[in-house]
LTD domain-containing protein
Amino acid sequence: MSSATGTTARTAAALAAGCAIALLYPAAPAGAAGSVHISKIYYDSPGTDNRSNASLNGEYVQIKNSTSRGVSLKGWVLADASNHKYTFPRYTLGAGRTVTVRTGSGSDTSATKYQGRRAYVWNNDRDKATLRKAGGATVDTCAYNNSRADYKIC
Ligand SMILES: [Ca+2]
Ligand SMILES: [Ca+2]
């Protein structure tokens, strides 16, 4: 009798331990694998908008890859609400990395790309950035409508 009771108690303890482990290690939630997404738009470059290349480059969009693998952005398009487009060259955005796409001219690096424009592209009051794959599928969008702020965290 006492032996049977002891076995039952041990079984219950083992079941409880199993439940505790299940609670400690729940199934990964959807989206835990991360994504490639627009993380920030700095739309009103610092100071007077004098169209200098430095000012144009003060305007930028950042795209982050929060997945654990590099993602090729070759042919991907970043567009504003008026459909001014920037098409990525052959380029892989590393795992956990962020790329900054500046409006003006400069030499591309692994962390910064340049649209090469001579005019601003991101409106200072309201606009919408859309990131599309080479085939046209929308990956992410980020809209803003606030002329009192200079940037938007997406
Ligand atoms: Ca602007
Ligand atoms: Ca400005």
